[in-house]
Amino acid sequence: MSLPTVSHDLVPELLAVLARDRRDAFALRRLRRDALRGLRPFERLSRRQAAWSYARARVARSWPLRPLLRGLTRSDLRRKTPLGGGLTIALVGPDGAGKSTIVSELTEWLAWRLNLRVYYLGSAQPSRRTRALRSLSRAGRGAARRLRRLPGGGLVARAADALTALRYLADADDRASRVQAGRSLATRGAVVLFDRFPLPDVHVGERLMDGPRIPTLATAATSRLLERLAERERAVYARIAPPDHIIQLAVSPAVALGRKGNRSPQSVEAKSRALAEADLGRLAPVTRIDAEQPLEKVVAEVKASVWRLL
What we know:
Blueprint: H1 10-20, H2 25-39, H3 47-60, H4 66-78, E1 87-92, H5 99-110, E2 116-120, H6 128-147, H7 153-187, E3 191-195, E4 203-204, E5 207-208, H8 224-238, E6 245-250, H9 253-259, H10 265-277, E7 286-290, H11 295-309
Parallel strand pairs: 1-3, 1-6, 2-3, 6-7
Antiparallel strand pairs: 4-5
């Protein structure tokens, strides 16, 4: 087992100081500083975060506020941190596999007792910046369709593709920042669930599933601007660290399409087949669960898998 350590020289130095003069405050403070510096990479909270948490707890437990905040305080105290430390788990599967339902079940099951956080890594919950770029992209594409047969229509199409590329880049930044935030919480002992995850080599048609999309734009091959934006997008996704564990909900294209009949059959089938054929094990340990079973059984198997990881 790998445990945090400090320099071995600190121990004999401490013994020497204690033998020479137990009241040598300058030497003792220097040794304390060196010890804290050596342990800093392993700290779960920074000094500022720890001070804020301590102050907040003292205020919440002070006699004027304790009756008002009693319920909140007890709820906070009930939440536990796994003995083995934090953990990141990605729940992946095609449309119709029941990801959102299972994430809700896991949250209801664990969040009341465990330090748990959920991050959605799809595109349906954009940040403000991404939402604004999405509106501009739609407006640009609408203008490009209306003006495509008129003089200057090609220039409008290029501008629309540039706006769409900026939107895709913002999507990538959203995902990367959420993964980073989740991993940061995990280092402080939290259990983090990722609803979806960018998976390399899982291709849906010409693009990666929840991955880079700029190269699929019509003018990507002829625009230097789009080439540069595509490089930035690939760099963002390359920086996304894999989760500690993946739970894959497996469902056949026919069943997925039956559950998501309002979606494009080609898209549903392509996503289901892409995930079924992907080698996710090279990214992280994988637990594969048959999501064609009744929902209650699927939820029970996912809970059992998560419990074993904890």
